[in-house]
Design goal:
Structural class: alpha+beta
CATH class of the largest domain: Alpha Beta
Radius of gyration: 20 Å
Largest sheet: 5 strands, antiparallel
Strand content: 5-15%
Mean pLDDT: 75
Number of helices: 9
Number of strands: 5
Length: 228
């Protein structure tokens, strides 16, 4: 098998993995439902939770204090990766948005089922105009987060696909250029494991944060930013 054909087949395999990795789930803060396949797909992937809350006028200070307490409690649970609270952007978008991350869906469930969370959630809900709304973001959607922006709505799927490919192609090409001869000597499963591990690490921690900033003008057009 020629090196070009071998590289092409690996590129296709990796692209299929990335295409199948994107999962977008949304529901209310009190509960959400997923089928078994979705659970298996996101159970071990980092997951971002975006909660939108519209606070009763005059209750903002109390709400923010309770939100701070909620964050402090969540930070003590396994898998907690951080949180941010975004105040209402303007009169047309009067919602608070709380964004936090856990290392896996299992860790998130452990926190959501805790009595510590339930106790504060009841107090928070009493300060709201309407029940909380929640979105769960996992897979490559997490790559597309613009610092300083409320990332409630991810970019269009075709944009995420194109930018992912734009970062993926040179990465895979470089891996095969540098390690191609050595990789050919390894068993198929081990080759695949090494290539995908290198590619995903480089994509997640090096390339995608930079590509998201470089192409922010296209991924997050200014006329859409106040709608997110």
């Amino acid at each position: 098998m020629s090196a070009e054909l071998w590289q092409f087949r690996y590129n296709i395999k990796i692209l299929r993995k990335l295409r199948g990795a994107t999962t977008l789930l949304s529901n209310t803060d009190s509960e959400y439902t997923m089928n078994n396949e979705s659970k298996q797909a996101i159970n071990h992937d980092p997951i971002t939770v975006v909660i939108s809350r519209r606070v009763i006028k005059g209750k903002e200070s109390e709400f923010e204090q309770l939100s701070t307490q909620m964050t402090e409690r969540a930070s003590k649970y396994p898998g907690y990766l951080g949180a941010n609270l975004f105040r209402p952007a303007n009169a047309e978008d009067p919602e608070y948005r709380i964004i936090f991350k856990f290392a896996s869906h299992t860790d998130l469930q452990q926190w959501e089922r805790s009595s510590e969370r339930s106790e504060l959630l009841e107090k928070i809900e009493s300060l709201l105009v309407s029940p909380s709304e929640k979105e769960l973001l996992s897979g490559i959607v997490n790559w597309f987060t613009l610092p300083g922006q409320n990332p409630v709505k991810p970019p269009a799927k075709y944009k995420m696909t194109f930018i992912s490919w734009l970062a993926l192609y040179p990465t895979v090409t470089l891996v095969f250029f540098v390690f191609g001869d050595w990789l050919q000597q390894l068993p198929l499963l081990l080759r695949t494991c090494i290539v995908t591990a290198i590619v995903m690490l480089v994509m997640s921690y090096v390339l995608m944060p930079r590509f998201t900033r470089w192409f922010a003008f296209w991924l997050f057009p200014k006329h859409e930013r106040n709608l997110r």
